[in-house]
Amino acid sequence: MSSVRSGPEQFWGSGSPPRTGRIEYRLVRESIVRDYRRGRLGRSDVCDAQPELLRVARNLGRQTATECPICEDADLVHVMFAFGPRLPPSGRAVAPGDLVRFSRQREELACYVVEVCTGCNWNHLLSVFSVGRSAARVR
Ligand SMILES: [Zn+2]
User: Fold this and answer.
1) Ligand 1 center from residue 60 Cα (angstroms)
2) Rounded distance between C-alpha atoms, residue 98 and residue 126, angstroms
């Protein structure tokens, strides 16, 4: 059984900004993968990445060395979306350099890290955390 060997923080580089309020969804992920392997969930239930998410994964995603838990054929890609007052309601895909810039902004942004398999369309929210100066001041 494969597991997540590396977190997103490794891919967005060292010197990344302080992050607060991180919520991890890895336990949820493991339980979904387990249900899929036991046949309780079908492939169409878990491999439902939208075209836009796949496009972002191909263009801005960070390649990982973690094998997809569903098709076990492709390596996973991590993508990040930011949500905040001045960003579109559907969020904005984050390029690697953006995160450092976001951390200097006054307003707090919520960043969502999603893992995606561009082979079988598996996708899952990995973690949510905040960046921005107001986020850093809270804790
Ligand atoms: Zn896959």
Assistant:
1) 18
2) 19
